[in-house]
Design goal:
Layout (H helix, E strand, L loop, with lengths): L2 E5 L4 H13 L3 E6 L18 E5 L5 H9 L3 E4 L6 H6 L2 H21 L2 E7 L25 H20 L3 E6 L1 E3 L8 H10 L5 E3 L5 E6 H14 L5 E4 L4 E3 H11 L8 E3 L14 H7 L8 H14 L1 H17 L3
Parallel strand pairs: 1-2, 1-4, 2-3, 4-5, 5-6, 6-10, 7-9, 8-12
Antiparallel strand pairs: 9-11
Helix pairs in contact: 1-7, 2-4, 4-5, 6-8, 6-10
Length: 332
């Protein structure tokens, strides 16, 4: 894989993937990103310009996508609208980007016979009860709970259909909740970190009992590279690092690591349709491809993430006021 097209490569996970590729391989990368509010060209600052190129454009633009796919060896498809609450307010951008955009990518890789890896989420499986010992598996039935998750589930099914019907060389990964550098501050962990750094009290949804299976973004991206190169065509791989924590534990750990009273947070209204628990069984990925996370300890990964937000306030400060104003209108 000497030349990659990375859609959504200026977003959180995508930009970290581009950085991972630049640091760990000799491949060159073309980033295609629409630069919506969730995409930030600054997230690619400092990367070698002879190996990383940013093209500002829409994955629904069939002519542009066709041209870029023709000039690459493989496509890693991160681009997606991905905020549950926003999808409840206006589902159309999620239908357009996640479904029509994925269709556009699929038609291009089919035409040019290019390798595709499609990035998805464990949230398409719905949620688990807090006392359920089970975890999500590659065979778990889809049970999406929002327009966002329905659109992501639809995009996964499109990929599977294009593999079966047209012989497209594609794999899919469904990953648990990522955290790390360059994540938009509307998301739970960076919002709480930047609240403390801004002198604001962190906000905990509902009772804070909701459980997420956290994974550092670098561990996710190392798995993506492995699947892209060694994964079996047509297969789905679940990526998780056994990092189950409820939201209360996470917010108290953030406060403690920043030298604050672990109880110094406010309870706010719960999110509409807030799923209770996600948990990933990554046995297939580990046994078949030999993947293991570097950050096996959540505290270690969280400490590194806090340090990044402390050192890069110029990256997140411009969006902080507007983000908190948005949440204040929602009572959150």
């Amino acid at each position: 894989m000497q030349r990659l097209l990375v859609t959504g490569g200026a977003g959180f996970i995508g930009s970290n993937f581009v950085r991972w590729v630049a640091a760990n391989t000799d491949a060159s990368v073309v980033v295609l990103d629409k630069l919506t509010y969730a995409g930030n060209a600054d997230s690619l600052d400092g990367l070698p310009t002879d190996r990383v190129e940013l093209v500002v454009g829409d994955i629904c633009d069939a002519e542009l996508v066709d041209r870029l796919v023709a000039d690459c060896d493989a496509v890693v498809h991160f681009a997606a609208e991905s905020h549950n609450d926003n999808s409840l307010n206006d589902p159309w951008p999620f239908i357009n980007t996640n479904i029509v955009g994925t269709y556009t990518i699929l038609q291009a890789v089919r035409k040019h016979d290019r390798r595709l890896h499609h990035i998805s989420t464990d949230e398409v499986y719905g949620d688990l009860e807090l006392d359920d010992p089970d975890r999500f598996h590659e065979t778990t039935s889809y049970n999406p709970s929002s327009p966002y998750l329905s659109s992501k589930g639809a995009s996964d099914l499109l990929v599977r259909a294009w593999v079966r019907s047209f012989g497209v060389k594609a794999t899919i990964s469904n990953c648990s909740n990522n955290y790390g550098p360059y994540q938009h501050i509307e998301k739970f962990i960076p919002r709480q970190i930047t609240n403390v750094l801004s002198g604001l009290r962190p906000k905990l949804y509902g009772k804070g009992e909701n459980v997420r299976d956290w994974i550092h973004v670098d561990d996710h991206n190392a798995a993506v590279w492995l699947i892209l190169n060694d994964g079996r065509i047509g297969e789905t791989y679940l990526i998780g690092a056994d990092g189950e924590k409820n939201n209360r534990e996470v917010i108290e750990e953030i406060l403690g690591l920043l030298g604050q009273d672990p109880s110094a947070y406010d309870l706010v209204a719960d999110r509409p349709g807030h799923d209770m628990r996600y948990a990933i069984d990554s046995t297939k990925l580990r046994e078949e491809l030999g993947w293991e996370p570097i950050y096996k300890n959540f505290t270690e990964g969280l400490s590194a993430t806090i340090a990044w937000y402390e050192a890069n306030q110029d990256w997140w400060l411009p969006a902080k006021q507007a983000t908190e104003a948005m949440y204040a209108k929602q009572g959150q």
